[in-house]
Amino acid sequence: MRLRKAFAAGAAGIAIAAGLAACGDAGNDSEGRDVEAADDCDGKFDEGTRMAELAEAGKITVGVKYDQPGLGFKGATDDVPSGFDVEVAKLLVADLCIDPASSNVTWEETISDNREPYLESGKVDVVLASYSITDDRRKVVGQTGPYMVTGQQILVKEDSDVAGIEDLKGKEVCSVTGSTSLENVKAKGAKGVGADSYSECAEKVLDGTYAAMSTDGSILAGLAAQNEGQLKVVGDEFSEERIGVGYSKDHPEMCEWINGVLEKAFDDGSWAEAFELTLGPSGVETPEPPELDACQ
């Protein structure tokens, strides 16, 4: 189910920004939920599966974002990243009998443009980095979920008259290179301009280089929170982004395992707890868990 945001377009973006400021601050100071590692991995996974290999090794590398407050964020003084993507990743790590809080987990910064290369090369074992599920990506890597469904919106300066994507035809709109957001804004008649990070886009909006930036509304709310009174989220959602988990196509067996962990989290309330901790303070209502895709 889509996220139901407790704000309307325009000035109401300030309300969610103020709310998420607390969430963003918490992400800087807190390591999130304490997720206990399972202790049942002896014979739990079929021999030869990637899950069995990871559980036996007792180590895993997880690709996450570092620049998305509330989803995947790591400040200069933080030991580990925080956010909803990170909390969902902890559930997968713990199911492999690996302590998510231990040094056996490597949290690898994974930007939009290198998610597929990192999975293909084996640099990371899984990716949870606001990773929209698309048919094109599934030709290259495995993707399953979604564990969140959201939509794309616009971030502009506080004094901007822009009310939504329809006001940006022919104007430059920033998003991250390699993201689906760039294609979506181009389809709406704007000129999509790529950047290396979401924070870079936000800075370019603040200094007037670009009229706006665009990506998932949940990401924009975090950026607005970091720049309270200077940036605001506007407009209705104009896309559907189904956020899922990425894994290597060399290990298709991971799909059923990932879905099983997600389904359990949906049922036992741990998914909702993770959402409320990381995105709830922003004013985003906790949605019903989305329906998972069937593994092919």
Describe the structure.
With 296 residues, this protein is α/β, with parallel strands linked by helices. The protein has two domains: 50-149 and 242-282, D-Maltodextrin-Binding Protein, domain 2 (3-Layer(aba) Sandwich), CATH 3.40.190; 152-234, Periplasmic binding protein-like II (D-Maltodextrin-Binding Protein, domain 2). Helices cover 33% and strands 22% of the residues. It has helices spanning 13-29, 50-57, 84-95, 115-121, 135-138, 180-187, 198-206, 217-226, 254-268, 270-278, and strands at residues 4-5, 60-64, 67-68, 72-73, 105-109, 126-132, 142-150, 152-157, 172-176, 191-195, 212-216, 231-234, 241-247, 284-285. The chain is globular, with a radius of gyration of 18 Å. It starts with a strand and ends in an 11-residue tail after the last strand.
